[in-house]
Amino acid sequence: xxxxxxxxxxxxxxxxxxxxxxxxxxxxxxxxxxxxxxxxxxxxxxxxxxxxxxxxxxxxxxxxxxxxxxxxxxxxxxxxxxxxxxxxxxxxxxxxxxxxxxxxxxxxxxxxxxxxxx
Length: 118
Fold this sequence. Notes:
Blueprint: H1 2-8, E1 11-12, E2 20-21, H2 25-29, H3 34-39, H4 45-61, H5 64-71, H6 75-87, H7 91-112
Antiparallel strand pairs: 1-2
Helix pairs in contact: 4-5, 6-7
């Protein structure tokens, strides 16, 4: 086990860049679960870049109502919110949970009374 810990703490240096110690995921977030590793995997970068490009296009040429609907339909927003809701402790987690509950409650009331809700 000590060898594994020593191996995880090895210094990673790329080219002439300064050496940065590699901090294991378990020390950063408090656990070593698969969902957290999956969120930070290179495969997620495609979705984040897509979201970034949509944001740039929306800033340049799209109306605000279209932009909010388009950008809120991108997957990384909900992945990151789920990651925070499950793995993060404190005020941010609590606020995010209550925002979701309030959004559902107010949305149900507004929608059934024919008020605009998006």
